[in-house]
Amino acid sequence: MTNSLNGTPTPRCGHPATWWMVGCLMILSAVSAAYAADYRPINPSHASDTVRLTGHDLTAQQLVLVARDGAKVSLSDEARARSEAAFNLLLEATLEGMPVYWFNRGSGAGRESAIFEGDAESPANRAMLEARQLQIFQSGESNGVGPEVASEEVVRAMLVVRANTMSYEAATPALTQMLLDLINHRITPVVRSRGTVGEGDLGPLMNVGATMVGVGDAYYRGIRMPAAQALKAAGLKPLKPFAADDSALTSSNAYSTGQAALLLADAEAALGWADLAYVIDLEGMNSSVTPLSAVVQLNRPFPWLNWHAKRMLSMTRGSDLYEDDPKRIIQDPESLRASSIRQASAWQAFSHLKETVLLQINSSDHNPAIRVGLSPEDSWELATPQLKKFFVHGGPRNHNQHGYIVSNANWDPYPMANDLEAFTIALANMDAAITQRISRFTSPFFTGIKAPNEHGWGRWGGGFATSSIMQEIQGLAVPVPPEGNAIVQNVEDMQSQSRLKVSRARLAVDDTIELLAEDVLTGTYWLELRQNDQPTRHFGPGALSVWPVFQKEVLDRDPSGAGSLHDRAALFLHAHAPQQLYPDLMGPTMPSATANR
């Protein structure tokens, strides 16, 4: 193999002599340094914690704890037994002479071609399957298209999703354990970022398979080395795959789904900051709060809009915004009045996305679908001749368990792909309002007082930075065009490109934080002006939860070596979860995800 950065050979180490091992480690350190500029290892701050995987109740917070913070995983007895029962049903199917897609029959264009006949566990078939599976896993090292995934948390998120959902598949117990071991020993396969069309992330997961059998490169605790060396360092032996382990591992959308789950945590923080920034702007503008009042909300009973208005009222309660002020104009600019509506709509889209992603990470998207325990009597279609062809009666070797094994399209990642784009669009529409309300602070007509610097130099006003960020967000809001290319001999003719959709959503969230940094800089500047103009002025709890901390950590900080004012503001937003500064941020109670859907 060659170094993907400079084309030089990647060294292979493994000689038992001490001097050779020292030399190998020195070479590996040099090679690792070549990649270090791009690779971002995690900070395993929760390495002593363990998340229990059951296949049905994994949360986004738990996934983040493992993928980003280094927690370990365990598999529940029920989940492990479910997977073993599916595996045993698969073997029983061949004993009963049933054709099974992607096992004794080929996959894709080879679905009608027999790979073997008869019992999968006969000596001849077992030897053939072990050799075939090993070859498939080894070939995974060259699969996919670069560049390599530079973030350890992204690959770990993929592994966590697959470990949770693979409990529904016919994986060998050895494959199941190896996937858990990679996570718990922090062996992170080198994964190429492209090559998946979003209808099953075959390429990235094939890269994982190569690591399992000791082929290619992997990162061990953040250090790049040959996969075989990483397994050895962790005290693990390479996997010996069998049966249909290749399909059990790779038939999944875990690559894009894992990223979507990571996205949820950061998107929720961004929306929380948008709400805090909004109440700071309301205070800084000396706004009219009439759009939030019951008068308005009762006339338009959209659950998410009503919820958000109550949320903003609670964050500004006690403020002088509710006192009579002759300097306050009767109506704010549209961006101030409509921000609550835009932000409520973004929260609604986020809620839909969260519901969808949680379903995705806790269900099977594998083909074929295996369901142990189902009988022809359980549903009318299962009793028809077509479906009964795929009914496994069960026998002594699988403890007489029966069930079905059928082909399907569960790998099609909708509705998650749709909800990812819907959230990105909702976020962009929210950001358009934020961008405009920042600029409105340059107008004394709206503010009622004149800033010392009317040209907007320094901390306030809509300028180049705000416009530049918003232009990036506008491009991200354009949906990925629907696509259907008839590939694999006209068999695989649909593509969802969920990889692109989740990456756009990710960039939109990042850009939103950058935009909000400008917003908070502007809003807090105007809080100072309001207080200077009226020293006895009262602000609401939302603004007061942020302003003093922001003043201390960003504005009063020695700027030497700390980056620009914008950079310091953006780092502040990244470093502080909104709920930490304002614990009551999540009240009042949110509507259900399906409210007004």
Given as residue ranges, the uncertain stretches (5+ residues, pLDDT < 50) are 1-36
Estimate percent helicity: 40-55%
Q: Into how many domains do the coordinates divide?
A: 2
Distance between the termini: 51 Å
Q: What is the makeup of the main sheet?
A: 3 strands, antiparallel
Q: What is the overall number of helices?
A: 21
* CATH fold descriptor of the largest domain: Fumarase C, Chain A, domain 2
Overall pLDDT, averaged? 89
User: CATH-wise, what's the superfamily of the largest domain?
Assistant: Fumarase/aspartase (Central domain)
Which term fits the overall shape? elongated
Give me the count of strands: 10
Strand content: 5-15%
Class from helix and strand fractions: mainly alpha
- The first-level CATH class name of the largest domain: Mainly Alpha
Lateral strand order in the biggest sheet: 4-6-7
CATH architecture of the largest domain: Up-down Bundle
* Rg value: 28 Å
